[in-house]
Every structure is written in structure tokens, then in C-alpha cells.
Amino acid sequence: MKVLVVGGAGYIGSHMVKMLANSGHEVIVLDNLSTGFRDSVKYGKLVIGDLADIHLLENLFIEHQFDGVMHFAANSLVGESMTLPAKYYRNNVANTLNLLDVMVRHDVKHFIFSSTAATFGEPEYSPIDEKHPQNPINPYGSSKLMVERVLKDYADAYGLNSVCLRYFNACGADPEGEIGELHDPETHLIPLILQAASGRRKSITVFGRDYATEDGTCIRDYIHINDLCSAHALALDLILSGKQSGALAYNLGNGTGFSVQQVIDAVIKVVAEDGYSLKVEDGERRPGDPAVLVADATQAKAVLNWQPKFADLETIIRHAWSWEKKVFNRKT
Description:
Order of helices and strands: EHEEHEHHEHEEHEEHEEHEEHH
Shape: globular
Distance between the termini: 41 Å
């Protein structure tokens, strides 16, 4: 297959590109490098450009006969979306419409969309399945939900087949250590803790220890980046096979939550083997942080025949720690 991966220089996209290439597919990466990194594109051809550039998109689809498109090029900082909503609706919604319209014009009808658990808003129950109401509480989640609804209409009107994959906390790194998580600024818990261990930051702060959980800290569902990518690959295979059509959506997670304290304890254990330690500080609760966010991925497992291979928290952290040491050594 020939696959266009939009946002393929980012964290999730770069791992997806590697997996597709190693499976024998030809990959074209489109990325404006606003948050992605040129060095993260180890496979395929990189085209530097933006989804706002319709002329570029048209030329790209004229030059290549794509079998499918994967879309990871979204702005994804919840806090920023609250202060800069126009940025999120413009890039995450309007620019996605540019891409979908070009796909329709060139008869490319297989689309995999990177969605998010933020479309659900405050959880009414846990674990969260696909029937859970979608009531996003920030522009980021709203922008992703808008695209999900657009895809349903495009399926009905234009025969565009799509799969939306909603995930909770992507984490870990390439087990081979070739690529990993790079964000600026970093907002994800595991790399933040590892940066405190490596010395790239002074400490890690626990925001609230009075939640209704066993140890008082928030519980989240952490899914290894390779498991996430394997679900995307299976989703593309599903709609390319013709066995499923229309606009589909599945939740992705391990179905097992780990508390902030459990993650910290696991990191302490792993980094101690290399003689490292970290400083932990306590802070106040952050507004809008639910006590528990865990995915019910039953449908993804049943329909996509997907099964996480790296569900163990310590394994996830070991892969991420190997990458952090590589990045830290490169910076020092």
C-alpha cells in the first residue's frame, strides 16, 4: 500500500511511519514541523507543508496514488485550547476539511483519524466504552468531536470510509530505541517523571492526593505507543478489506488504570537500576482533572482483532527510560 501519514514527524506519527514501512508499505509523510521533528522521520519521504495549503495537497494527490490516509496533525494542548480556541478550530477542523475534500476529489476513500478521550468530557462511568456520552469540556475535545461528526456525514454523502481511534494516555517509546517521545513543552506524565530522574527538570509534582482512589492520586489508562500504532494499522487493513465501511470509532486503552503514585513508584524502581533518583513534590489539584479515566477497548479487540503487547507498566517505562537517557546524553 501507499499511505499518506499527516503529522508523521510527531510522536505518534513517527512511530506509525516506522511500523508501516517495516510492514512493507510505501509511506509519504506530510508535516509542517511546527511540533514535529525532521529527525524523527526515519522512514518514507518527508514533504514539509501544511494542510492549509490546498494547492500543495492537490499536487500531492496528483503525484501519488494513495491507498489510505492517516491523520495525526492536530494541536493537542488542552490548556492552550482554552485560551486560543481559534487555533484549534482552524487547524483541527478547517484544515482537516481541506484534507478530506482533496481525498474525495481524488477518490481516496480510506481514512484513519487520531481522536481522543477528550471527546467524552467528564466521565459518567468508568471504564469508558463507545456508548459513553460525548460532552467535551474544552475546545480541543470539541474540535476532535466535530471531525468525528464530519466523518459520519462524509461517509453518507461521499462513501468515505473512516475509523476514529480515541485513546487516553499514549506513552512509551520505540522498543528498539530509534525514536521516542519529544514534546516542547512536555505535558505527559511519564516523560515528565523521567526528566526529573535524568536531571532535565528539578522535580515532579503530584497535583492532588485527595482523590477517591486507593492512594489518593489520579488514575489513568496508559497505552504503549507501539500498541497504539498497531491498532491504527489494523484499522486501515479493516476498511481496505471492505469488511467494514462507513464511519467507525473505537476506544483504545489497556483497560487497566495506574495511579500517578504507581507510575512514580515504577519509575523509581527502573531508574534506580542505573543509579538515578528523583524528587517528588506535592501540589494542589488542577481544575478539571477527573479521578479516574480508563478505556473499555472491548470493541477494538473484537472488531480489529487488536491485542496490546506492552500492557505492563514497567515495560512501558523501561522503553521510555531508554529513550530519555538517549535524549539526555545528546543534550549534555
